[in-house]
Amino acid sequence: MAGKPGTTPTTYSPSPTTQKTRRPIFNENDVDWVRPDGRGFHQCRPAFFRTGAVNAASGSAYAEFGNTKVIVSVFGPRESKKAMMYSDIGRLNCSVSHTTFATPVRGQGSEHKDFSSMLHKSLEGAIILETFPKTTVDVFALVLESGGSDLPVVISCASLALADAGILMHDLVASVSLSCLGKNLVIDPILEEESYQDGGLLITCMPSRYEVTQLTVTGEWSTPKINEGMQLCLDACSKLAKIMRSCLKEATSTSQE
Amino acid sequence: MEEAAAAEVVVVTPGEVLGKASQVRAGRGAYVAPHNNLVYASLTGFRRTLSPPPNSPDQRPTVEVTGHKAHGAVPEPGSVVIARVTRVTARVASADIMCVGPKSVREKFTGSISTWAGGSIFGEEEVSLAIKNMNGDKAPGSYGFDIAFLPTMLRGGQSRGEVAVGLSCKRQQDVRATEIDKVDMHLSFRPGDIIRAVVLSLGDARAYYLSTAKNELGVVSAESTAGETMVPISWTEMQCPLTGQIEQRKVAKVGG
Question: What does the record list as GO biological process (chain B) (predicted)?
């Protein structure tokens, strides 16, 4: 429609932002900055695991990595729903949900709807499905507080819960994520660091067999950085697996007494 | 009773190496990785080494991992289960499996006892032999087709179980195609009975296939219509102690 003189222009261009931009946590040219929680770039948060938290479930585990708190319950092997077709190997059913108070802004957890399928992909390689034909193992993960690196913590905690439930597995599954911030690689990023990342890398591996069950790369990466990142993550995974094993052994010996 | 060769208590977790496949055999809770021939644990628990039986050609000890927690049991073919009957029709009785062996399950599994499922009365070989030996000149049964049709039915993909519904006798000389199945479920079970059965197979998507075709299998405990626990008086009858009423059941031989 022909505009009358003096009306708004028919083209649109974004006006310069008037609100204050967030101060980045690091300077682009800085190679040597300190992380908000004081850790080194290649230092993971201290890990806390506990199994047997949920009595009603076949197996359960609770994990706390700094501010990220996750609880996972495993039910099964139990009967599949009647509607499902017969299957001569077992089925795995995963569901990850966030509490409403998990994120700083209430109710933002539903942005990560794909966590359930990613958890499924990372666990299905490790479970020996042939040992429970026709039945289903249900894994329910609940993120109580989201403090960054949620999915790796969920995966490691789920693998502990499966071991606690007595499901036959090829190996424990440990998972670590990495962020690329400018020129630096920081491992086990917190929420703030994740929001500034140029690229993210998530590795899930079976440390004793040195096999990777899942690798997720997002953002922009150069090949040498990916190689370096993968190596860092795999080392961190094997250290994390040691902590997980000691937690399981402690739980077994305390229950024997 | 073989003695455990290792006396020390070692806790292992999934993925821990238990030995080389050339030196030990993988028992329960352990598995052999094909690519590097190592035996790994697949459970969290205590590792035990069992010495091999003296006569076997394979003299490797067996290493197994026993879980530390009482994990819920899953029905497996060959295991004896305790179940509660939920539904009875003329040919099929459905039951909820509550215990597998000595352990109770965490959540019930569905089982079904039928007169022709997977050979609970007739085996596959018996049915095949019987059909082969039948002549095509007998009178048609009440399905409306005569015996000559049966091989055609089988080639057409009907399961042997479905065909066996019409066969009522085990002996291959004496097979008649009739529609009467001599076993009536209502004379063996009623809803609410506790039965002991053996798992025949994994069955289909809906239920495990069970069988009570042995003396020690069958109804272990049942309530009469008056509400009292009945007393068995023979292999096929139970009596209510309150009213004296006799009801038909397939009684299990308990003890002895």
Answer: RNA processing
pLDDT tens-digit series, residues B122-179? 344 445 555 565 555 555 444 444 444 444 444 443 444 444 333 333 333 333 333 3
User: What dihedral do alpha carbons A181, A187, A191, A194 form, nearest 10°?
Assistant: 30
How does the average pLDDT of chain A come out, rounded?
A: 87
* Beta-carbon separation of B71 and A88 below 8 A: no
Secondary structure (H, E, C), chain B: CCCECCCCCEEECCCCEEEECCCCEECCCEEEECCCCEEEECCCEEEEEECCCCCCCCCCCEEEEEECCCCCCCCCCCCEEEEEEEEECCCEEEEEEEEECCEEEEEEEEEEEECCCCCCCCCHHHHHHHHHHCCCCCCCCCCCCCCCHHHHHHHCCCCHHHHHCCECCCCHHHCCECCCCCCCHHHCCCCCCEEEEEEEECCCCCCEEEECCCCCCEEEECECCCCCECEECCCCEEECCCCCCEEECCECCCCC
Q: Chain B contacts of A253, Cβ < 8 Å?
A: 11
The minimal CB distance from B42 to the residues A79, A170, A245 is found for: A170
The domain that contains B112 carries what CATH number? 2.40.50.140
B195: containing domain = 71-135+182-255
Q: What is the mean pLDDT of residues A9-29?
A: 63
Output b/e per residue, A66-104; b: 16+ Cβ within 10 A. Answer: bebbbbbbbbbbbbbeeeeeeeeebbbebebebbeebbe
Nearest residue to A197 via CA among A144, A143, A148? A148
Quickly tell me which residue has 């038909």 as its tokens: B248
Q: Find the angle CA(A191)-CA(A194)-CA(A200) to the nearest 5 degrees.
A: 145
Among B67, B95, B110, identify where a domain stops: B67
The answer to whether residue B1 scores a pLDDT higher than 90 is no
Q: How many domains does chain B have?
A: 2
Q: What is the pLDDT of residue A19?
A: 54
- The interface predicted TM-score of the complex, written ipTM, equals 0.80
CA distance B80 to B192: 19
- The share of chain A scoring above pLDDT 90, in percent, equals 55
pLDDT at B238: 92
A86/B204 Cβ within 8 A: yes
CB of B209 less than 8 A from some CB of A:
no
Q: Are residues B186 and B129 in the same domain?
A: yes
pLDDT of residue A27: 60
Judged against a pLDDT cut of 80, whether residue B36 lies above it is answered with yes
